[in-house]
Amino acid sequence: xxxxxxxxxxxxxxxxxxxxxxxxxxxxxxxxxxxxxxxxxxxxxxxxxxxxxxxxxxxxxxxxxxxxxxxxxxxxxxxxxxxxxxxxxxxxxxxxxxxxxxxxxxxxxxxxxxxxxxxxxxxxxxxxxxxxxxxxxxxxxxxxxxxxxxxxxxxxxxxxxxxxxxxxxxxxxxxxxxxxxxxxxxxxxxxxxxxxxxxxxxxxxxxxxxxxxxxxxxxxxxxxxxxxxxxxxxxxxxxxxxxxxxxxxxxxxxxxxxxxxxxxxxxxxxxxxxxxxxxxxxxxxxxxxxxxxxxxxxxxx
Length: 301
Fold this sequence. Notes:
Structural class: alpha/beta
Number of strands: 12
Oligomer: single chain
C-alpha cells in the first residue's frame, strides 16, 4: 500500500476552469490516483482530463434544495427540537444528514461525499489529500514531504492571521459553534480547510466530525465557507490524533490570499516562489493576484 489519493469536488466548472488543476497535476510528477466528484451535468468538462486512467469520476445527482430562507427556518426548527430532546438528536442523525445533503451548498455537501467514498477505498491508499479545485495548482507532487505515519497535516494561512481578527472566520464560528467557541478558538492562527493531507483513517475521522457538525446545525447548512468552523474546532481542540500544523511558507502548501506580496515572487518559467528560493508543492488561492494568475495560466493552459 504505497499509492496516494487526491480527493476533489467541482460543481459548475468548465474545461477551462479545470485546466490549471489537472495540467499542473500531470506535470508535477504525482503518480497516485484522483477521485473527482462532480454533478452529472458537469461531467463533460472532464473528458480531456480522464485519458490517463488514474482519475475516477464520481457523479452525483443534485437534488433541488428548498429556498434559502426556508432552509434556514426549517433547519432552525429541527436544531431547536434536537437541542430540547437530546435523545432525538442521536436518533435523528440519518434524517438530518439527508436534509443537509439535499439543502447544503456544494462547499459543504462535499464532506459527506468524501466521507462516504473514503470509507470504501481507504484501505487502498497510504495518504489522502482533500483539496479545492478552481484556485489550486501543483508545482511538485503534493505528497513530496516528510509525511509521518498515521498523521494528518493542516496548513496555516499567513503568519499574521488570527481567527478573531477575520470577520468571516469569526462569524462562521460564532454562528455554528457559539460565542464561547469563538472566544476559545479566536486567538489561534487561521488554518485553511480547503487543503488537508493525512492518512485515510484520520482523514475519515475529520470528515465524520465535519459532517456531524453540519448535520447538527442545519440552519446554516447552505452557508458557503461555514465548514471552516468545525475545521478550526478539529485543529485547535485536537479532536483527531497526530495533528501536524504547518506554516504557510514552509514550502508545502502556500495559501496566497493573506500572504504579503513581498514574501512571494514569480520565476521566469511561471512558478510561484516563496522567500526567494522555495517552490511550494501546492499553490492555493493564486487567483487573488492578477500577475500570479497570468503566469499560472500561461504555464498550465
